[in-house]
Amino acid sequence: MSASPLLDVRDVSKVFTMGGVLSRKQIKAVNEVSFALSAKKPEIFTIIGESGSGKTTLARMILGSEVPTSGELLFEGKDIAARRGAERLAFMARVQPIFQNPFEAFNPLKRVDRYLASTARRFLNARTEAEMEGPMDEALQHVGLSLREVKGRFPHELSGGQLQRTAIARALISKPSVIVADEPVSMVDASLRMAIVNLFKRLRNELGVTIIYITHDLATAYYISDRIIIMQKGHVVEMGPARPILEAPQHPYSQLLKRSVLSFDGAGGGRITRSGREEVDTSAEALIKGRLKPAGDGRLVRVG
Ligand SMILES: Nc1ncnc2c1ncn2[C@@H]1O[C@H](COP(=O)(O)OP(=O)(O)OP(=O)(O)O)[C@@H](O)[C@H]1O
């Protein structure tokens, strides 16, 4: 068996050139980033950073939809950018994306099961209804849904949470080793966020899927991540086990990020109102101090 890491990101940079001949401007979106994910130990590997820090560009290079300007990304020892045709398709089956907005991920005029069926056709070469429906239902069961529940439904007929879980099920159909989830909970109602991130934990534990979780939400990052990297202006400023880093960040930027998220963040670090009466503090600080714990229904509950 090969000893290569599952994913090996080596000194990867991406430069975008903007403007015309006279006003040429270069943006180094990703700057010499390196890390490796183990083939043996599935994990939740989080990429955290504020808007514009290069997270999405890095994710697009991992998915092979953007080619690095320098450095290389290897999946099971082979260059991602060099894969073509059948090799590219096989790679795409193993490394699947989940996007931010489930309502954009699905065509509003297409029934969601048709979307799942086309994924089964593409990656599993399924042809008959039965060949498609078995893996579709299996994937939906992994996210707490079933084919019976979503069959014939249009995206607007499902809740945001159901639709995001369907998007995750779609990603599971090809039995991937890696899921790249770019801000998967930022468009989901705050009360459902923990349910989605708990699902990622289950996929890691039960299916052995490695999750690359891209976010600016320190609270969920703290709660689910095994390791994190913190990015600022394309650079990795801190990398390592998630909890020690988020509890006591060393780099001034990580410290600033933590402070700013604790004081104001509408996307997860802020306050949500439950039942219109009670305020639940979902900030990273609250989680860190252990004042909240996730309840079975995906909400956070106050301890003691
Ligand atoms: N196709 C592109 N052409 C030019 N510049 C780009 C392109 N894609 C990204 N950039 C620039 O690269 C930098 C990093 O962007 P990127 O989207 O990777 O950051 P991000 O951390 O994912 O931010 P966000 O959370 O807002 O998506 C930004 O300055 C952005 O404007």
TrEMBL record:
Keywords: ATP-binding, Nucleotide-binding, Transport. It is a peripheral membrane protein. Pfam families: ABC_tran (PF00005), oligo_HPY (PF08352). The keyword Nucleotide-binding applies. GO terms for molecular function: ATP binding. Gene3D superfamilies: P-loop containing nucleotide triphosphate hydrolases. It is found in: Cell inner membrane. Its main location: membrane. Residues 7-258 form the ABC transporter domain. InterPro entries: AAA+_ATPase (IPR003593), ABC_transporter-like_ATP-bd (IPR003439), Oligopep_ABC_C (IPR013563), P-loop_NTPase (IPR027417). PROSITE patterns: ABC_TRANSPORTER_2 (PS50893). This is ABC transporter ATP-binding protein.
